Amino acid sequence: MPINERKLAIVSGIVLGEDSEAGISVRLSELRQVLSRRVSNPDAVIGKLTEEGVFKMEKVGGGFRVIIQYTPEVRGIYSNVIEPTISFDDFVKELNNAVIKYANPATGYADLGAVMKHVCGRLGIGELDFDQLFLKAIRINGRRYVLSYGGSHRIRVGSGYYGLVKVIP
Amino acid sequence: MQSKLLATPERANILLGPSWRAVKDKVMGMINDYQLMALVGRAGSGKTHMVLNLCSELRREWLCMYLDAAQLIDKRLGQLLSVAVKDNEDFIKGVLRVAKSKRLSNALSRFIKLSINDLMAASLNYPVDFLTMLHDLTLAVGLRGLVIIIDEGALSQDDQSIGGFITAVHTLRNTMPRLSGLRVILTMLPDVVDYIAKNDPPLFEILNMGVINMPDYVTEEDLMEVADAYGLNGELLGLIKASNLSMRQIICVAELKDLQKCGLQGEVEVTIT
Questions:
Q1: Model ipTM?
Q2: 3-class SS of residue A67
Q3: Alpha-carbon distance B160 to B177, whole Å?
Q4: Model pLDDT for residues B72-100, shown as the tens digit of each residue
Q5: pTM of whole model > 0.80?
Q6: From CA A131, how far away is CA A115, in angstroms rounded?
Q7: Which of A102, A104, A107 is the best substitution to test chain B (most B C-beta atoms within 10 A)?
Q8: At CB < 8 Å, which residues of chain B contact A?
């Protein structure tokens, strides 16, 4: 079976490494050894990811450490592998920030598609999770959000399809 | 039954709720200084109701022409103006009648001899010239100027004819400096404003200054007035207070007393698709 070498490298790194502020840190020799069981040229894969900026090399003593950056892709894989629990409060906080950030200056409405990308990237959740949590947020605190038609991602609420959202301060 | 939820000039005599009256005051305050204004609000927030109300008030001092552009496939300026002439025939005739007793320039005295059909043809073929003549005429008869209200210019961001409409507004924008008595009031949905912001920044920068946001939802103060006018009972009021409903949704509940028909079930029905 052909394997996605790039994803395998990130998954292995997440499993072997430990979380830190800057990223997930893992010993290069350890990562290379694990990868070599399935990948013929692990250095090429690691080199490519380093070039892209997903991995960062750090010299520690006589060896190297790989710091895996928290890119949206890495967050997505991370949440699939380890499934961190995202509290509903975190979601609402990120949601409100994103809506304010993307709001049209004239109307105050933000495109739900842009908001979703931002929140999913920050929290490492998928689109389906976003929809579910967003609907929960509306159900619990309907007075805080106003929905309107349009936008690039639409959610059905009641009998309308909405894609623009505004937060009432 | 459905027609109870649509705006008509008769129904627009009443503006329920302090939030809506505040918007009207704001527009009336801006009409001197702003030539291009946009009333922005989501569906059912009372934009059409508001402009109909405004137009009848403005007619004391201005020639106000209201037009609903939803009936047009092609929304170029000429098409919009010819519908405006047709729909406001009586008011234009009134101005022409008054003009007969005034001393007018050569061009204007020929202009007032045209019939409504001639005026429609002129507006269709030479929109900017027609606009200039009509504008000059309103000033010559002692009115403060000409107000054009374009309702439903674009139905949504995905409207097929949105390009023609934006071009027409852009033309009006460029004509504004020459016609000091011209006022243009548009109604827009938030997604149309988004579209203009992304696709026509030069227009957006001018339009942005004249944006007036409609109340997005009915506040408790507004609700008390609506409840008085429609005799809403306590149970419905409780439901309505639980979420941000638009004015049309609330009027729908008040008129029909049927949550399902108004698209609201339970508190607020939520379904994932």
A1: 0.82
A2: strand
A3: 30
A4: 999 999 999 999 999 999 999 999 999 99
A5: no
A6: 11
A7: A107
A8: 38, 40, 42-43, 156-157, 189-194, 197, 204, 207-208, 211, 213, 216-217, 242-244, 263-265, 267-273
